[in-house]
Amino acid sequence: MTLLGHHDFRLLWATQTLGQFGAHFSRVGLPLVAILALDATAFEAGLLATFQTVAFLVVGLPAGAWVDRRRKRPVMIVANLGRGLLLAWVPVAAYLGVLSLTQLYVVALGVSVGTLLFETAYVSYLPLLLERGQLVEGNAKLESTRSVAQVGGPTLGGYLVQWLGAPLAVLTVAGGYLASAVVLCGIRMREAVPARGTDRHLVREIRQGLSFVFGHRSLRALAVSGALFNLGVFVTGTVVVVLLAQQLRIAPGTVGLWFAIGGIGGLVGAFVVRRVSARIGPGPAVWFGMAVAGVSGLVVPLADADWRLWLAGAGNALVSTGLVINNVNSMAIRQQLCPQELQGRMNATIRFLIFGAMPIGSFLGGFLGERVGLREALWVGAVLSLVAVLPVYFSPLRTMRGHPGDDDPGTPRDGAPPGRQARPRDPDGVGSR
């Protein structure tokens, strides 16, 4: 039976889809609110983008240990309710005439915390719902909706900003988050309460997650590579919005369309990822996808208010294609190499590095855009993303052609983690994890 017949996965998939639309709109929509409604500078737009991801850097590690101690579904529900209510505050403040950059920073920070909790919980929840052999298919489906959201989120967001005004357009995103919280309530599978040992200590648990990731050659390579790539891509993403909307005077709807082209590339990646993984293996697919993304990103700094705008858009699409191939295989490898009781801490540690690079990249992009110029900043971002292929290429992942397991060359020889726990079947008769 395919995952389309898996009731609980379908609901998780729907929730993730709504969340991804919200996330991709917010990354373009909130800077457009700041630029168009509040005349934000490049540095102020970069600072806003920094707040949208800073939670992963500041509280990413304790969040993983905290999530490991709790049922994942309630965490996801509360996170989406919080994101929806915070974003609903923006149009209300605009209607009352009190909208300010400070408020946008607060909203972005709060949404960042909600995104951190949701993302950490849902990637740890997926192995509870699915069997080991279903993880590549499940991650591919989730990445396909991420790619659809990359197309629909910025495009719809850009035109909503153009038609309704920037603050009011944010209200639609708030509604999506609130709806996704309702959808999550329909999942039938109930998790057991995580075991609470008498010696549990937050700092010790964080250290366990760090030790597991950094002591594992494959996981360490995935974390370092992802951090370098996100550092570069968020320098680029922060600066390119200002370049298009402010310097080149591109209409908001066209800005959204430009970002949507990248999402089309992501859809291509989601369509071919299983074939690529089957042909060359999950490990080589990781570095291959990263190489495609890094090389293609060198076209983005060429964007201008003519045919080069769409050339850069095509390069951005290939970046998304490579990134999806990389992400699907990276996620499946991570989920299969880690025991369930360490999933939250492992994911939080890797996301601390990968997503923690996002606010640094956003801040660096805004700083460089203001000090040395927008195009120069775009070239810095492109080069940083390109060198991200090196850690995964020079690692055991390069020769990992079968499904990863405890015999993976990167697994530490001592201090091996305990095995996976048996899990109940879901109500539809499909194995759940």
Automatic annotation (TrEMBL):
Give residue ranges for domain Major facilitator superfamily (MFS) profile. 218-433
Question: Is Nucleotidyltransferase among the key words of this record?
Answer: no
Q: What protein name does the entry list?
A: MFS transporter
Q: Which domain of life does the UniProt lineage start with? A: Bacteria
Q: Which UniProt keywords apply?
A: Cell membrane, Membrane, Transmembrane, Transmembrane helix
Q: Which GO terms describe its cellular component?
A: plasma membrane
Which source organism? Answer: Micromonospora craniellae
Q: What is the lineage of its organism?
A: Bacteria, Bacillati, Actinomycetota, Actinomycetes, Micromonosporales
InterPro entries, A to Z: MFS, MFS_dom, MFS_trans_sf
Q: Does the keyword Transmembrane helix apply?
A: yes
Matches recorded under Gene3D superfamilies:
MFS general substrate transporter like domains (1.20.1250.20)
Location of region: Disordered = 400-433
Kindly give the membrane topology term recorded for this protein. Multi-pass membrane protein
Question: Which Gene Ontology terms cover its molecular function?
Answer: transmembrane transporter activity
Which residues does UniProt call coiled coil?
none
Where in the cell is the protein located? Cell membrane
Q: Where is the composition biased (Basic and acidic residues)?
A: 423-433
The UniProt transmembrane annotation reads: 45-67, 88-118, 164-187, 221-244, 250-273, 285-303, 309-328, 348-365, 377-394
